[in-house]
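Quick start: what a row looks like.
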Amino acid sequence: MAINTPAQAVKYYLPFFVSNRLDLGAIKKELRTTHQFSDEDVLIASRSLSEAHVKHMAENTDTANAYFKLVLGGIIFLGGIGLTIFLLEKGFIAYVSFFAIGAGLLMIAQAIRNIRLNTK
């Protein structure tokens, strides 16, 4: 693939940079040697690539965090139910278990909302 401009370099190398197959130093070296970029073009491409990487990570981290919160909320919810059952068998009623159930449900609801917002 012919890469002649820094914008084309960003478009081509962003997947390699995001997946950690190439680091920024290796990309700069490849731009200089393989594609014959000038130092100024390498600087522009590396800055643009860094900005695109930050933007990509910010956009995709929200979805990953939402799924993590969904799983964590489910674990807290089930733990609260288990604690409630355990304490009821022992003859106790503890509000802590109800708070755990409520916190788990709240986390699940927030995660579902965030997943819906991020997938649109």
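That is the whole record. DSSP finds four helices and no strands in the chain. The longest helix spans residues 39-90.
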